[in-house]
Specification:
InterPro entries: DB. The chain is mostly helical and 93 residues long. The protein has four helices and no strands. It has one domain.
Length: 93
Amino acid sequence: MFKSGFLLFAFALIAKPKFSDGDECYADDVMTSVMRCSQKDKDNTECCKTAGVGNEHDFCLELCDGTKPITNNEKYAECEDVANKVKECGKNA
């Protein structure tokens, strides 16, 4: 279901600032759709905690909850080092 680097691509999109107010590729609803899909619309926070997501940046756990909206916020660029763990929890959900 997931291609290698899919979540890294999503994180890159989330971390980039909007080019303009009308740039649909960076809209919050697009980011929410991508992350909800990657987590199969489930809250995989416990899996992520067990895998060590959030140890360095607790906000990275927000990427594991596919039941809540995610915003286009550059802070998520800090989560790149745990992207594979986030991806695995979603994949195994």
